[in-house]
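Quiz preparation item.
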């Protein structure tokens, strides 16, 4: 097997292997890049496995071209030419106990076969020789890849016990590859699902992001439900019985959503924490709490919360003034909100009519119509003798609203309105 069309990234990864070989070491591409190549996909990044020790790798490529990000575990990063991604070089190894369920307590350098046997899934446990163009498969990965099966290497319970994140990765690989989860592996995931809680929330959130950004996001969440992982990923979501079909359908219908949008759709089906309002919309505070628990970035949290806050706007869009609608459409996340509106409209006739109304009403508006330069600034108001404070903001908002509604169109008209408002408030 040859890469379909060599590119600069694969050429760099091949060069890393060649330099290790010329220094007397065994070296191969390893893991996900091999899986992708066998599926005739271009890998996003390349990992190299080698018999060379970390010290030998650093000596060969030089301190300036390497980063010792995981030297104690046998991992060195080889820095690339400008414009390319680095290549991770790991020494063949076996691993000691994972007492914390996340990382090994020790590593012992080993052979390529021993290294393959300590990896997570058969489809990720293969090596590829980019020089002689051959696959090294000690774990049956090629057969499982051809059959479309995600299977743990060796004892599934032992593999999951070593690194609890593998519980979630098993589900993600099954969904995004559109494969089947091996029954023995599925049984291990179900039996150990609660132990996902020992994994850092940042790593869980990272896996959730990858699942929700993939077109098979619905299946990923269904697998999380079937295996019990959802109780850890998003506690409370499974309290809605039966599983929220509306949320699953919406996830499936979303067209290339952002993480914030997909997450907002998912969280829409969280139960209301108030006992007598279980079927009422989930409060913003609950959504904010989950964003905080997952330690999301401010951008992701703000995106999820804004979309959550405006998800029902389509129900009352006919009541919006021009100013209300222009403010909504001028927001940076309006495109994501319109995706959600489209999903809602696809299954509800009233919402479909509301979306058609919104589209027709805004069809002639340009970007300049949605967010024109303000006619009055805070300095203009201060120049008239008004002191800083809440009233200043109220006046700015009132004039801006009038501008967006088409009630004032020039600076002179805005100044006249301002004087009337100030005079009326004195």
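Solution:
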């Amino acid at each position: 097997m040859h890469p379909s069309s060599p590119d600069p990234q694969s050429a760099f990864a091949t060069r890393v292997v060649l330099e290790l070989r010329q220094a007397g070491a065994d070296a191969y591409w390893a893991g996900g890049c091999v899986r992708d190549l066998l599926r005739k996909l271009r890998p996003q990044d390349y990992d190299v496995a080698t018999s060379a020790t970390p010290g030998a790798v650093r000596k060969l490529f030089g301190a300036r071209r390497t980063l010792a990000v995981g030297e104690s575990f046998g991992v060195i990063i080889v820095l690339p030419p400008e414009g390319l991604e680095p290549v991770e070089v790991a020494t063949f190894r076996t691993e000691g106990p994972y007492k914390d369920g996340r990382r090994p307590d020790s590593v012992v350098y080993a052979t390529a076969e021993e290294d393959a046997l300590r990896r997570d899934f058969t489809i990720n446990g293969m090596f590829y020789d980019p020089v002689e163009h051959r696959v090294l498969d000690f774990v049956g990965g090629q057969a499982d890849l051809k059959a479309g099966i995600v299977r743990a290497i060796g004892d599934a319970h032992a593999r999951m016990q070593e690194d609890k994140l593998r519980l979630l990765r098993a589900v993600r690989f099954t969904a995004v590859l559109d494969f089947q989860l091996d029954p023995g592996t599925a049984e291990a995931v179900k039996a150990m699902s609660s132990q996902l809680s020992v994994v850092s929330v940042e790593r869980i959130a990272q896996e959730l992001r990858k699942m929700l950004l993939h077109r098979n996001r619905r299946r990923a969440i269904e697998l999380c439900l079937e295996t019990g992982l959802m109780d850890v990923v998003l506690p409370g979501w499974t309290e809605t019985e039966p599983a929220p079909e509306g949320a699953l359908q919406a996830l499936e219908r979303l067209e290339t959503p952002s993480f914030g949008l997909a997450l907002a759709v998912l969280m829409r089906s969280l139960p209301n924490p108030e006992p007598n309002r279980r079927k009422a919309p989930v409060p913003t505070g609950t959504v904010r709490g989950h964003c905080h628990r997952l330690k999301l970035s401010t951008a992701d949290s703000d995106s999820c919360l804004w979309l959550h806050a405006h998800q029902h706007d389509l129900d009352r869009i006919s009541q919006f003034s021009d100013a209300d609608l222009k403010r909504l459409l001028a927001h940076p996340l309006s495109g994501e909100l319109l995706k959600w509106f489209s999903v809602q409209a696809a299954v509800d006739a009233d919402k479909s009519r509301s979306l058609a109304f919104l589209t027709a009403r805004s069809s002639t508006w340009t970007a300049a119509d949605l967010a024109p330069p303000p006619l009055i600034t805070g300095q203009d108001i201060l120049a008239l003798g008004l002191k800083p404070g809440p009233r200043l903001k109220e006046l700015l908002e009132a004039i801006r609203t009038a501008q967006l509604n088409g009630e004032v169109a020039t600076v002179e008209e805005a100044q006249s309105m301002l004087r009337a408002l100030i005079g009326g408030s004195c």
